[in-house]
UniProtKB/TrEMBL annotation, chain A:
This is Cell cycle checkpoint protein RAD17 isoform X1. It is found in: Nucleus. PANTHER family: CELL CYCLE CHECKPOINT PROTEIN RAD17 (PTHR12172:SF0). Keywords: ATP-binding, Cell cycle, DNA damage, Nucleotide-binding, Nucleus. Belongs to the rad17/RAD24 family. Its main location: nucleus. Residues 602-611 have a biased composition (Basic and acidic residues). One of its GO terms (biological process) is DNA damage checkpoint signaling. Gene3D superfamilies: 1.10.8.60, P-loop containing nucleotide triphosphate hydrolases. The gene is rad17. It holds the Pfam family Rad17. The lineage of its organism: Eukaryota, Metazoa, Chordata, Craniata, Vertebrata. Residues 1-29, 42-64, 362-385, 602-654 are annotated as: Disordered.
From TrEMBL, chain B:
Subunit of the replication factor C (RFC) complex which acts during elongation of primed DNA templates by DNA polymerases delta and epsilon, and is necessary for ATP-dependent loading of proliferating cell nuclear antigen (PCNA) onto primed DNA. GO terms for cellular component: DNA replication factor C complex; nucleus. Subunit of the RFC complex, an heteropentameric complex consisting of a large subunit RFC1 and four small subunits RFC2, RFC3, RFC4 and RFC5; the RFC complex interacts with PCNA. Forms an heterotetrameric complex with RFC2, RFC4 and RFC5; this complex has ATPase activity but is not stimulated by PCNA. The heterotetramer of subunits RFC2, RFC3, RFC4 and RFC5 interacts with RAD17. Interacts with CNTD1; this interaction facilitates crossover formation. It comes from Cottoperca gobio. GO terms for biological process: DNA repair; DNA strand elongation involved in DNA replication. This is Replication factor C subunit 3.
């Protein structure tokens, strides 16, 4: 670690510092730029060493530091930072979860052998805060990897991220900023092995350290870009780390709804098992907890600003913020701060925009919000426009599917149901088609699931049978699915028709489920079709290339020759052919198949069909691509090479 | 040891076992050393390819039987590489353009151009044209068929085309009119029996006429299938017995069991099981349309006469959708569900009628 401090000195003495001075010159900017308090603190320290002495001496260093900081900071300091939790009680995370993480950290920091923990969850659910608070309470120093951000002119044509900077921060007392000089050719990757180094060396005891323990915890939240390209390199480092580790290592990965789930990508199941990585998944912050935090903050602020510079935020506004943030506490606090800006005209302007009516006084706005609130409680899925801090509400696939499959409808013709489904009753001969008003908007659900309509239909198709009890309903549902497929079959019109297709599929399913029995929980599965289709094509290609010498058309080859070859005792030419015939030509008749290996869909799983989808498109529609003939099984291509020059004797047998 | 099908395949027009008048006509056709483009069509297992190969041998002699597999890489205008395998001798080139999927047009044009542009070296002793044999023409896209029509005329001097398909309905008119159409019908039951008996004799086996007849019926007069079945019988049991079971392919048995499962119970759960079975069939390389056809046949044999028209009509409806659509399972399943609903209703009505 002495190396580090030397580096630190060297870095600070250099004119070209890695910290951007503009950060502290314009604190307002840090609101948008800095994601976490740490960065701000770090900057503050380099520029303003005045507070260090006071901090370091205090016994409860972190909290007091925080309080002082917050007291002296500008108004413009983001509330997220100012009111960041400093005890377990303040964390907006479920107690059980905290306990779980705490137990893990306790167990793994007490033994000399470290472990690896993976925290996942949507952004703003308190993952980082939990680790920070717990490490504070358990007296652990946190050493964190932050991706080096380059302030220097690029020395090469490479990306800025390739800049070799490593900052290893301990946020308690000792902050080490350390610039590795003369290493501009080394990659982030090699630096990331700091894991191993941190492991090895202890921190120097500083004066006024208060005898802090040398126990530490490594936190990795940013990942070097290289790892996204080659997750294998991360795994290699981890393997080495696990062998020699002496302190716990915590990875924090935010869930994302878009296709690339980085946690799955960086930490696949097999690696998790191999390296014994424990994984804890956080849920979005619950509305009640969120309300508590927001109320606390707003009352604190109000108390501080009793002169009335800030207006007290109304309970209803808080509720709106709370429901609009979809469990992201960071964004909720940010929007709270924004909405309670002293400039009331702005606020009202925003509010008015939101209400879409002319309100002059706040009270009216509030009453209006109340009404809206009631309404939205009645109709759950009413999409509430939010002027301030509205997050794009999105659904995880699991929930989106559930919304369609469970088919929630209004129970009776209440006033609010009549509101959205007016119109006369159906004539008597069509009365069997009558349904209560839907509680979900199918198009919205599909849109929020972040999937193309076709894939959503595939998922529905895989799972809908479990939710039906009558064959007649199934018949109609399956016909709607077939219709939906037909609508999107032509690739020239697919982009326009896809929406109609998904609409037909979802609404068809909803309508044809006439029984409305609540089936309770049913596990959902991923569609088999993609796999089956891929295998079908692969096998067909393999069959053709392996048995080319028989000069048969694919159909007769697959339906006549192969199955009979399986029954004959002809010596075949090579091993691959024999294996293939045993695999494809024969079918096990005894077995009454349940389902194929079903891959259960977990509730957090985002859609991950990107690659498959491409293949699918390619093979089925063939917009631009032909059959993926270039990707048969390895054995096949080998055989092809072997047989290329082979002369067939089958015809020459006179 | 090769299969009987290949081992006893006739190699000259004179040795063909059936359709002898047609064989003579073909012989006369190539007598003068030239022939027009041909479109050979007929059901699977009737002997189209055999006749074509005999014809080529008649034209070029034994050299046409020296076959080699060639691997072509063709670059489409969109810079995409298409890989396709062809079977070729010095005199002809056989290709299944539907292997290339949607890019079949490029494949056809490129391959025919390559073949047609290379002149034969010794025109005195050999024919001055080469032959390109296109199989599965009915699976060509319309695009490719139109391209083919132009190419056919352009390279008439150096290249003859033989098109081979199971039906002409999907071949566009301009192509049909440019070709001499030759239909190869299925052999009759007696002819198949004769072939089976003679081949068994050559193998030194004694085939009881009853078994031969049985095999013929089971195979649907598809000679290739009949021979494979016969060979499988030989593996199963020898000496043959007259009432021996003719082995069926696994997938046919599987499909029949699937149909039985559909008939025996109609519920969403059963449909789920059926779906799993359909998936299983698909992974074993059985094309969806064959599954559909087999399923309908089995279901029809299982259900009452009153239902048959309706079921057949539905099957046609969904088979059409299957061809148009993207994902076969939707349509297969929709058909199954529809059948279940109709069948259930029929059975319930029947039950009601019995009660009163």
């Amino acid at each position: 670690m002495d190396k580090l401090s030397v580096g630190d000195k060297a870095a600070s003495s250099r004119p070209n510092r890695w910290v951007d001075p503009s950060f502290t010159d314009l604190p307002g900017e840090s609101f948008s730029l800095s994601r976490r308090r740490k960065v701000v603190c770090a900057n503050a320290e380099t520029k303003r060493p005045r507070k260090r002495a006071g901090e370091a001496g205090s016994s409860g260093p972190h909290t007091s530091f925080l309080l002082k900081e917050s007291a002296q900071r500008d108004q413009d300091e983001p509330w997220v930072d100012r009111y960041s939790p400093c005890s377990q009680a303040e964390l907006a995370v479920h107690k059980k979860k905290i306990e779980e993480v705490e137990n893990w950290i306790r167990v793994h920091s007490n033994t000399s052998k470290g472990g690896v923990l993976l925290l996942t969850g949507p952004s703003g659910c308190g993952k980082t805060a939990t680790v920070q608070v717990l490490s504070l309470e358990l007296d652990l120093r946190v050493q964190e990897w932050t991706n080096p951000s380059s302030q220097e002119p690029y020395s090469s044509s490479q990306h800025g991220e390739e800049k070799p900077l490593l900052s290893c921060q301990c946020h308690c007392q000792v902050r080490i900023k350390w610039r590795m000089n003369g290493l501009s050719c080394s990659s982030q990757l090699s630096q990331f092995s700091f894991l191993l180094r941190v492991n090895k060396y202890n921190c120097l005891k500083m004066v006024g350290d208060g005898g802090a323990t040398d126990r530490k915890l490594i936190l990795v939240e940013d990942f070097p870009n290289q790892f996204y390209r080659q997750p294998g390199s991360l795994h290699d480092i981890l393997r080495r780390f696990v062998k020699t580790s002496r302190c716990p290592l915590v990875f924090i990965v935010s869930d994302s709804l878009s296709g690339d789930s980085s946690s799955r990508f960086l930490f696949p199941r097999d690696i998790q098992e191999e390296l014994d990585i424990s994984s804890i998944s956080f849920n979005p912050v619950a509305p009640t907890t969120m309300m508590k935090v927001l109320t606390r903050i707003s009352t604190l602020e109000a108390g501080k600003q009793s002169c009335g510079r800030m207006c007290v935020t109304e309970q209803t506004v808080l509720e709106t913020l709370c429901s609009g943030s979809s469990g992201d506490i960071r964004s909720a606090i940010n929007s709270l701060q924004f909405s309670s800006l002293p400039d009331t005209s702005l606020e009202k302007g925003l509010l008015r925009m939101k209400k879409d009516i002319h309100v002059t006084s706040l009270s009216k706005a509030v009453s209006r919000t109340n009404q809206r609130k009631k309404k939205s409680k009645l109709k759950k899925e009413q999409n509430e426009e939010q002027a301030i801090g509205g997050k794009d509400a999105s659904l995880f696939l699991f929930r989106a599917l559930g919304k369609i499959l469970h088919c929630k409808r209004g129970k009776h013709e209440g006033a609010e149901a009549a509101d959205c489904a007016p119109g006369p009753d159906l004539p008597s001969h069509l009365s069997h088609l009558h349904r209560e008003a839907l509680l979900v908007d199918p198009e919205l659900v599909v849109e929020r699931s972040h999937m193309s309509g076709e894939f959503f239909s595939l998922y529905l198709h895989q799972n809908y049978l479990d939710f039906f009890s009558e064959v007649e309903d199934v018949e109609r549902a399956s016909e709607y699915l077939s219709d939906a497929d037909l609508l999107t079959s032509d690739w020239t019109s697919r982009s326009t028709m896809a929406l109609y297709g998904s609409s037909v599929a979802t609404r068809g399913l909803l309508h044809s489920n006439s029984q409305q029995v609540s089936v309770g929980f049913r596990p959902l599965h991923k569609p088999n079709w993609l796999l089956v289709n891929k295998k079908h094509r692969e096998n067909s290609l393999a069959a053709q290339s392996l048995f080319r010498s028989f000069c048969l058309t694919p159909v007769s080859l697959q339906t006549e020759l192969l199955p009979y070859l399986a029954k004959l005792t002809n010596p075949l030419r090579n091993q691959a052919q024999i294996a293939f015939i045993q695999d494809v030509g024969q079918m096990s008749l005894r077995r009454f198949p349940g389902r194929l290996k079903l891959e259960a869909l977990t509730d957090k799983e985002p859609a991950q069909l990107e690659r498959d989808s491409e293949e699918e498109e390619e093979g089925q529609a063939g917009v631009e691509e032909g059959l993926p003939a270039s990707q048969p099984k390895p054995t096949t291509s080998q055989v092809l090479l072997e047989e290329e020059e082979l002369i067939i004797e089958d015809y020459t047998s006179d | 040891m090769s299969l009987w099908v290949d081992k006893y395949r006739p190699t000259s027009l004179g040795k063909l076992d059936y359709h002898k008048t047609q064989a003579t006509q073909l012989k006369n056709l190539v007598q003068c050393g030239d022939f027009p483009h041909l479109l050979v069509y007929g059901p699977s297992g009737a002997g189209k390819k055999t006749r074509i190969m005999c014809l080529l041998r008649e034209l070029y002699g034994a050299g046409v039987e020296k076959l080699r597999i060639e691997h072509h890489t063709i670059v489409a205008p969109s810079k995409k590489k298409i890989e396709i395998n062809t079977i070729a001798s010095n005199y002809h080139l056989e290709v299944n353009p539907s292997d290339a999927g949607n890019q079949d047009r490029v494949v056809i044009q490129e391959l025919i151009k390559t073949v047609a542009q290379s002149q034969q070296i010794q025109t005195s002793t050999q024919r001055e044209f080469k032959v390109v044999l296109l199989t599965e023409v009915d699976r060509l896209t319309k695009d490719a068929q139109h391209a083919l029509r132009r190419t056919m005329e352009k390279y008439m001097s150096t290249c003859r085309l033989i098109l081979c398909s199971t039906s002409t309905s999907k071949v566009i008119d301009p192509i049909r009119s440019r070709c001499l159409a030759i239909r190869v019908p299925l052999p009759s039951t007696e002819e198949v029996c004769n072939v089976l008996t003679s081949i068994c004799k050559k193998e030194g086996l004694l085939l009881p006429p009853e078994l031969a007849k049985h095999i013929t019926e089971k195979s649907g007069r598809n000679l290739r299938k009949a021979l494979l079945m016969c060979e499988a019988c030989r593996v199963q049991q020898y000496p043959f017995s007259a009432d021996q079971d003719v082995p069926e392919t696994d997938w046919e048995v599987y499909l029949r069991e699937t149909a039985n499962a559909i008939v025996s119970q109609q519920s969403p759960q059963r449909l789920l099981e059926v779906r799993a079975r359909l998936y299983e069939l698909l992974t074993h390389c059985i094309p969806p349309d064959i599954i559909m056809k087999g399923l309908v046949t089995e279901l029809l044999s299982n259900c009452d006469g009153q239902l048959k028209t309706e079921v057949a009509q539905m099957a046609a409806y969904y088979e059409h959708r299957l061809q148009l659509g993207n994902k076969a399972i939707y349509h297969l399943e929709a058909f199954t569900a529809k059948f279940m609903a109709i069948y259930k209703k029929f059975m319930e009505d029947g039950l009601d009628a019995m009660m009163f």
